[in-house]
Amino acid sequence: MRLFPFRWFYMQILYLLIPMSVVLIVAAVLAFSWAVKHRQFDDLESPGMIPLLDDTDEERRRERQDK
């Protein structure tokens, strides 16, 4: 009795998995280069700080007058 009766299957599956992994890597590199080209990584600090900033008193007065 052989330990791996379907030894040919293991080699055949590599013919499928290697091209699939290459395609996945190429897609990831293209997505990253698109994000860099479209300036998605320019300012990582201020979008997280905007909700934390308080309105000034003048802005609060304007909001009250508009209502």
Automatic annotation (TrEMBL):
- The annotated region (Disordered) lies at 45-67
* Ranges in coiled-coil conformation: none
Indicate yes or no for the key word Transmembrane: yes
Q: Which top-level group of life is the source organism from?
A: Bacteria
Basic and acidic residues bias: where? Answer: 58-67
Record field: transmembrane: 12-36
Q: Please name the InterPro entries in this protein's record.
A: Cyt_oxidase_maturation_cbb3
Keyword annotations of the record: Membrane, Transmembrane, Transmembrane helix
What is the protein name for this chain? Cytochrome oxidase maturation protein, cbb3-type
Species the sequence originates in: Cardiobacterium valvarum F0432
